């Protein structure tokens, strides 16, 4: 059975590229342009979450870093690896403070994306 990956990215072109690459690798990919999908994250039961740090739908100060922290401190979701995606130069610090399992710097190489997903998707 294919491992399920949840991709949350507000840039449609980037989201579509990530989905295409991961589906080509044999993953079952669920994608969203906003973080509302996280309200039902336990129903989707993903093996990994790839999440943009800056999601334009947020009207508050919430971002991928804060969402990651919420997921990683919740006993029901803390087992799900979270990878934060961003173009900012301090992405490593953002990921660490958000308790994310890893990060992916934009622009990213397709091979690096596949490698990081394989590293964090548990068998």
Which terms summarize this structure?
single chain; 123 residues; alpha/beta; five-stranded parallel β-sheet; globular
What features would you describe in this structure?
- The protein has 123 residues and is of the alpha/beta class.
- It is 37% helix and 20% strand.
- The chain is built from five helices and five strands.
- It has helices at residues 12-24, 41-44, 64-73, 91-97, 110-120; strands at 4-8, 28-32, 48-52, 82-86, 102-105.
- A five-stranded parallel β-sheet has the order 2-1-3-4-5, with helices on both faces.
- The model has no long low-confidence stretch (mean pLDDT 91).
Short description:
The chain is an alpha/beta fold. It is 37% helix and 20% strand. The model has no long low-confidence stretch (mean pLDDT 91).
Give unreliable regions as ranges: none
Describe the main β-sheet briefly.
5 strands, parallel
Element-level helix/strand string = EHEHEHEHEH
What structural class do the secondary elements suggest? alpha/beta
Strand content: 15-25%
Q: Give the overall shape.
A: globular
Number of helices: 5
């Amino acid at each position: 059975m294919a491992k399920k990956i949840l991709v949350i990215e507000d840039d449609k072109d980037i989201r579509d590229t990530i989905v295409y690459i991961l589906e080509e690798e044999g993953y079952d990919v669920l994608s969203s342009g906003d973080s509302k999908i996280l309200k039902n994250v336990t129903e989707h039961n993903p093996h990994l979450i790839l999440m943009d740090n800056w999601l334009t739908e947020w009207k508050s100060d919430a971002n991928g870093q804060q969402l990651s922290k919420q997921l990683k401190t919740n006993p029901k979701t803390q087992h799900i690896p979270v990878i934060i995606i961003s173009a900012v130069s301090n992405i490593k610090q953002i990921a660490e403070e958000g308790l994310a399992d890893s990060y992916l710097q934009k622009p990213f190489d397709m091979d690096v994306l596949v490698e990081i997903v394989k590293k964090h998707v548990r068998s």
